[in-house]
Write a structure and sequence with these properties.
It contains 14 helices and 15 strands. By secondary structure, it is of the alpha+beta class.
């Protein structure tokens, strides 16, 4: 019998780093760092955020106020993110935080925004070569000083990071700071681009609208970021269902006009996973438009606003991708959600289509506002109880258009009789109608 030889299948660190960072944008990398801080911020109340209804109660609880600050400081030479969350203990850091992946039964299923256990590592590897992490925790935190280039050359198995335990800290002194220097050229170029900071602030505002309202305050270079708060009419449709350990609330209604008109950035579908926005203002086949149960999105549909709110104790069961910037279309819970989206979305779309008569004339926008009802927070509406979109009662029209053909020569004869040459067919028609109404019917 031939000798069995074990072929070397150990991973190459440099290839691994390249693979996990290649398909993530710089903005998404910063969001991964913020996810890490928000996870720590909500961990003390994670058992109260297990269903869509739990998120609604958190929103409605006036006693719930932001308790954690997250500071993001960026310049061309250095990136730092610092938070005042409870921190990471040395034990958790040694056993879980730096693993590439989440082991089943690791005890961190309470993490709301950690999907596959690669976000933090991928983010810091994306930014630069020198990484320093300091975390203070009431049970004792840790220090990490990592040179990525040197670590990548070390072929020793298993992979490890060397951390130094810190003394236990007082609760008010807890928190985590991550500093990245020796930034890569791609990072430096993006940070030197003035457009980038606007994109980052907008992404943070949209992505963490729920958390910014109740749990954390986020600052980018000392500028506080306000949550993207769009409104939806109280007259909206809503359905709630569950698949395995995931609950989902689907809502569709009429959004809020901005400066008197409806804008693309606040229309379409908004998808949330555990309170984190994954998709914003989507109008593509991904969310059912153009063949997935809904028509091709047109300008007349701009008042449409829909939300899909997924919640699960196990973040890996949610239908988001590893970058948390899109949806896994093959997910069973997503396919079920799309059926609900099409069903309740069509009712609102049909109403919007009905706002145009046979001649293409748009009805008064006041009627649209009346149909929408009082404005409420889109996050709150996203987890409301089951309800139907109520079609407004339309009153009978008070006027109609009368059209008929007449010989040009006859119209000219009427103009001459009235001694008003050139008055035109429309005016002749009105005059003769009123003449008949007054003399034959009687007013």
């Amino acid at each position: 019998m031939a000798e069995i030889i074990k072929a070397d299948a150990s991973p190459e660190k440099r290839l691994f780093i390249s693979l996990i960072t290649r398909d993530i944008s710089l903005v998404a990398a910063f969001l991964d760092l913020i996810d890490n801080s928000i996870n720590a911020a909500v961990e003390p109340v994670s058992d109260k955020l297990e269903t869509a209804e739990d998120y609604q109660r958190a929103l409605q609880d006036e006693a719930t106020k932001p308790t954690v600050d997250i500071f993001l400081k960026l310049d061309k030479d250095r990136v730092e993110i610092k938070d005042t969350a409870p921190g990471i203990s040395a034990k958790v850091a040694a056993e879980h935080v730096f693993k590439f992946g989440r082991a089943s039964g690791s005890g961190h299923e309470s993490d709301r925004l950690s999907v596959y256990g690669i976000g933090l590592k991928r983010a810091i590897f994306k930014l630069g070569n020198k990484i320093v992490i300091r975390s203070d925790h009431i049970e004792g935190g840790f220090d990490l000083d990592l040179d990525v280039a040197k670590w990548a050359k070390d072929a020793q198995q298993p992979w490890t990071f060397l951390i130094t335990p810190r003394q236990p800290a007082k609760a008010e002194d807890c928190g985590t700071t991550i500093e990245v220097t020796e930034l890569y050229d791609d990072t430096r170029r993006r940070l030197a681009d003035g457009v980038f900071f606007g994109q980052l602030r907008e992404s943070i505002s949209k992505t963490y609208a729920f958390y910014l309202s109740k749990f954390v305050k986020i600052y980018v270079n000392e500028i506080r970021i306000e949550g993207f708060d769009i409104k939806i009419g109280s007259n909206h449709a809503s359905e709630i269902f569950a698949v395995d350990d995931v609950t989902c609330a689907v809502t569709a209604g009429i959004g809020e006009p901005q400066a008197g008109s409806f804008r693309d950035k606040s229309s379409g579908w908004f998808v949330f996973c555990n309170g984190r926005a994954v998709i914003s203002a989507d109008k593509t086949p991904l969310t059912g438009w153009a063949g997935g149960g809904l028509p091709i999105f047109q300008p007349k549909h701009r008042p449409f606003l829909g939300t899909v709110f997924f919640v699960s104790r196990d973040a890996e069961r949610l239908p988001w991708t590893t970058t948390k910037s899109s949806i896994n279309e093959d997910s069973a819970v997503w396919q079920e959600a799309k059926r609900y989206m099409a069903t309740i979305g069509r009712v609102v779309i049909s109403f919007l289509d009905s706002r145009y008569n046979d001649e293409g004339t748009e009805l008064a926008s006041l009627d649209l506002q009346t149909a929408a009802g009082e404005r409420v927070s889109v996050i709150s509406a996203a987890v409301s109880q089951k309800r139907m979109f109520e079609l407004p009662k339309q009153s009978a029209p008070e006027s109609m258009r009368i059209q008929y053909d007449a010989k040009v020569s006859d119209v000219k004869r009427v103009e001459e009789y009235l001694r008003r040459p050139g008055m035109g067919g429309a005016e002749v028609g009105r005059h003769t109608f009123h003449y008949f109404l007054r003399n034959e019917v009687g007013e």
